[in-house]
Structures are given as C-alpha cells and as structure tokens.
Amino acid sequence: MDRTAQLTARVTERGIAYDPPSAAPSAASLHVRAARVLAANWTGTSTVPSRNLYPHQWSWDSAFIAIGLRHLSPLRAQRELETLLAAQWGDGRVPHIVFSPSVPLDAYFPSPDFWRSSSAGRAAGAPRTVQTSGIVQPPVHALAAWLVHRADPGLSWARGFLARVYPRLAAWHRYLLRRRDLGGGGLVSVVHPWEQGMDNSPCWDGPLARVTPAPAHSFRRADLAHGAPTDRPTDLDYGRYVRLAADYRDRGYADDGGEFARADGGGEFAVEDPSFNALLIASEHALARVATELGAPGAGRHARAERLTAALVERLWDDASGMFLCRDLRGGPIRERSVSGLVPLLLPGLPREVSGALLSTLRGPHFAARTGLVPSYDLRGPAFEPNRYWRGPAWFNTAWLVERGLRAHGEKATAEDLRTAFLRTAGDSGFAEYVDPGTGEACGAPGFGWTAALTLDLLHDVDGAVETGEEGGDRR
Known about the structure:
mainly alpha, four-stranded antiparallel β-sheet, Glycosyltransferase, disordered N terminus
C-alpha cells in the first residue's frame, strides 16, 4: 500500500492524516481535506480535474497535480506524468486531453468523436489506441518531473523514471520550439485559446473577433450542466472555440508557420503568450537538471532558456504597462493586462528593471485584490468580470506560479502573504476551481484537482530559494 492509500485509510478510520508538514490543527485539517480530494479524483492511472465537469485527464492539470501528489505518494505522482506522456504524438506534441474510454461521449464536449485524433492526426503521429485532443497546453511537465524526482530520488532511480520521461519531454520541447515558432522571433505561439490554458481571457477577444463561430446547433455544451452560465464562456465565444478547433482538425493538425503569419487570410488565431513561454523556459531549465542527473550535458538547455528569456523580453515586455503582454501575430501587441503577464516572475534571468516593474504591477491597483490572491485579469480593465471564467476570477495554479516567482526574486514576505491567502481561500472555498478575487466566493467546480494538489505543496515548508532549474532550495 503506497503512502496515499495509507493516508486515505487512516483518514477514513480516524479522521487524521499522517504527520503533517505543520503541527497546527488547521494545517493538519487542510492537509487531510486536500488528500481526500485527490483520492476521490484518482482513476487508477491518473487524476481528473473534476469528476463531473472535467472527467478526463488534462495535460497541465496533471503536471500541477503531480507536483502536489509528490508529498503524498511519489509513485502515484510519477504514474500521473507517465500516463499523460504515454499519449504523446509522434511529432512530439503532448495533447491537452487524454480521453478515458469509460466516460460516455456526451459527458464532455468536445468529445473524442469531435477531435478524431487517430484519423485526423495520423500524419502527425497521433496514437492509434488512445483517443486524445489535437491541441496542446502549457509545458509545465519537465518542471513537474524534476520536482517529482526530487521528492524520492531512490524510488525514481529504481523505477527508471527520469530515463523514461526525459526523451519524451525533450521531444515535447522540440515540437514547440521547431513547429510553433510561427512568428519567427524565437517564441512559441498558441493556435487556440484552450492551448494557453486561460481559455476565456479578454486577451483573446481581439483575435477571436476574426473567427466565424460554428453554428449553435452544431455542438452541445456539456459544461453548462455543471456550472452557472454566468461563470462560463458565452455561447458566441464557445462557437468560435469550436470553429478554430474544427479547422485545425480538418488541416490534419498541421502547423504551418507561413499560413499563420500571413496577413491576407488563414491562421485566424496565432498568439505569442508570456505565461506559455515562461513555463517553457522554466521547464527548459528543469530539463537541463534532468539531463545532468542522467549524465548528459545540460548546459545547452540552460543556454537555450537564456535565449528564450531574452526573446520574451524583447518581443513581449511593455514598459508602459509594467508587465508582459500577449502578441497577436496578425494584429500586434494585445493591450490587455492579465495574470499571464506576471507569470514570467518565475524566471531567474529577467533583467532587474523588468522584475522590479513586475513586482510593482503585482502590488498595484490592477492586481491587488482584497482576498490577497491574484486576479486573472486587470481589476480596472473594461472586460473585468469577477466570476466569469478567466475574465477576472483568481485561480490557484497562477497564484502558485506567482508565489514561486516571488520567492525566486527574494520577495519572501510578499510570497508568504500570497501563500497564506491561497491556503485560507482554498480551504474556505472547498478547493474550488476558481474564486471571486474580491470576496473569495467559490466558482466553477468544487473539489478541483490542482487546487487540492497545490494546497499540499504550499503546506510544505520552503527550504531556501525556490528552484526553477537554477541552484536553490525546493519545497520538500
């Protein structure tokens, strides 16, 4: 019986956990409750974000979940990543959804019969025996793999964990760097809002306005059966998401940089996003550490991460906003402030004036929410909605990333304030998917996977500087 199973059994029998990271009863209770969420969402091979709203395996969710699971069961954390990477395509992409064959088709849309991965994705090397989507999500996976390895190096070595995931992670990064540099400036582009992960952000309103939505009668939204319509994307936006995904599928999931960069048509959505690229950079640093651990050269990956950092600053930094902005390849900089522009705080190689300005923006009126969390969109922005999906609510994964970035830049007091707000609100909200940044009101799905997992991570003591691939400490 692994440590998670032991913990779950003891929770059931006596209502307590094994020795928690903190002796405080509130921390012990939070630890047990978070562990229960992850136990309830475990399928036997992976963890679903939410049993009802998201009943399959999601790519960046699993990376965040593995980071939390390492504190309960390093074995299960390894399996989480291995299950996801087993569905990798031949061209290196890691699909954003791996579908469970036991879930009815009408439980989630777009379903496997929409994506048709094994047929439409044949030329790109989609797996034949596993059904997946055809788009991707942010590349947090190498960072997660490194942290999972560090949680129990003995088990990792005994199972050959790093040796097995390293080639897949390297192929994943190679796909992004070679096939998705659609703007030619060294950064990765996303071709659908779902790829960036912050699906309904106001940042996408401009690029999406070019997209003719799919007819409303051509799809059925399963999400509205599990969430309030006021919390979810509008039908118009959803129709545009469906159109983009269908067009990409009908092109055989091909990535053609010339088509996307063209100004006279084609490539309706192609955006360079700061958080997606920052997570790739952080994972490049982590992959360098993995390579070194395996006895392979890692310096080249560190150097690549530094070049990507320079490209990020050159292409997406905006002095006037004091943060990074998205760049629409057909329309130029997108002048909307979102939490995506703060996530590059993760990176150790930022120029001092850039990190300083980011810290000022984080503490200023655009992002200083009453809960102490970080809103997903500018509190003063014209499109701000406190409860609607990524248009203002505070999310726990982005709070975790910003907290990690604060520690990376020596801002321990501010990081501790954010950590405290995170833990308080996660517990009070029932580990909600996201919350109103002003009131902490729970929104979206309850018992959400990454909220529970990252709660566990933040309950563990911080030992020195946060590790982003450079030397430094780590949450153990």
